[in-house]
Amino acid sequence: MPAPLPSEKALVPFVSVENMMRLVHHIGIETMLVELADVIEADFRRWELFDKTPRVASHSREGVIELMPTSDGEIYSFKYVNGHPKNSGQGLQTVTALGLLAEVSTGYPVLLTEMTLLTALRTAATSAMAARHLAPKGARTMAIIGNGAQAEFQALAMKGVVGTDHVRLYDIDPLATEKVARNLSGLGLTVTACPSSQAAIEGAQIITTCTADKQYATILTDNMVGAGIHINAIGGDCPGKTELHRDILLRADTFVEYPPQTRIEGEIQQMDADYPVTELWKVVSGEAEGRRDAGRITLFDSVGFAIEDFSALRYVRDRLEGTRFYQELDVIADPDDPRDLFGMLQRAR
Ligand SMILES: NC(=O)c1ccc[n+]([C@@H]2O[C@H](COP(=O)([O-])OP(=O)(O)OC[C@H]3O[C@@H](n4cnc5c(N)ncnc54)[C@H](O)[C@@H]3O)[C@@H](O)[C@H]2O)c1
């Protein structure tokens, strides 16, 4: 007897890398970044109702592999993600990811997707959402130090959400800077390649650091950062991996995602346990002040939190409706008689 067809719930929509790229182009990259910033912001406003835990990290000499779960009580999500700074020297990505959404009522998965591209999009959208609340008003120029996989996404999200129109670039590898300049040409940004990080930050109101190095690094020193700057630090996201000199933090108003995770992984791991931080969700929901005045240095000490992935996954699920940008995968064993898992196996002989 042929095996019965799997039930509807047994088939899980799967978004491959190829289909994610189609979906992004169908929506438009910049539009998607702006929409992601909005859905992430909406979930930051309901921050308190989410399950929250620092991500589960498995460290090695070469990098880290992490699981990032959360739930809003109706939908559960998790992301598998790695960070391996030496990978790019071997022709591999530093960060790769995949993610899953499930319905809490049954525990059945409802979406399985690539998340390497989606992580770059959601990280940039989160940075831009934070800058919308923290950067000086009317910021037009941003500097990006570290011109790897995340850089173009960061530039376009800041353009779409904050209105920046000039990007100043620096990387220790000039080929990386050339790549970003080439990729951004024709996308409505003036791009300037700079010979040093000092040169890159000249005239910038927003500085994004997105370098990858598994050690305490000093991408910005205290004397480089003047008044009225917003720093978006995304590369310091692991124990022992930071980008800013601690003296900058002594002068900055620092904003974080989830303090128990950021205290371990963020720039603030360099500071005492009582170093004051403001949770970004409180600024977004009007409970805490963001930029106090034009002269302050604001720092978004971004490490990436599970709720941002949840928002991005739910956005993708909504945007998939009515499209062909997914396949249905038979990944859940789901016999007609739920107690007869063994019988289903036997019938398949
Ligand atoms: N906060 C988050 O949510 C989040 C999300 C994704 C990635 N990240 C982190 O962002 C960083 C960048 O990720 P990526 O995927 O773009 O990595 P990548 O390896 O593709 O690019 C990193 C770039 O930094 C450059 N670099 C290294 N040291 C430098 C220095 N001292 N000065 C200038 N440039 C330097 C490298 O040459 C490379 O081009 C990583 O550390 C990653 O872990 C954070």
From TrEMBL:
Key words, A-Z: NAD
InterPro entries noted in UniProt: NAD(P)-bd_dom_sf, ODC_Mu_crystall, ODC_N
Pfam families recorded: OCD_Mu_crystall
Top-level taxon of origin: Bacteria
NCBIfam families: PRK07589.1
Family the entry assigns: Belongs to the ornithine cyclodeaminase/mu-crystallin family.
Name the record gives this protein: Ornithine cyclodeaminase
Species for this entry: Shinella pollutisoli
Phylogenetic classification of the source organism: Bacteria, Pseudomonadati, Pseudomonadota, Alphaproteobacteria, Hyphomicrobiales
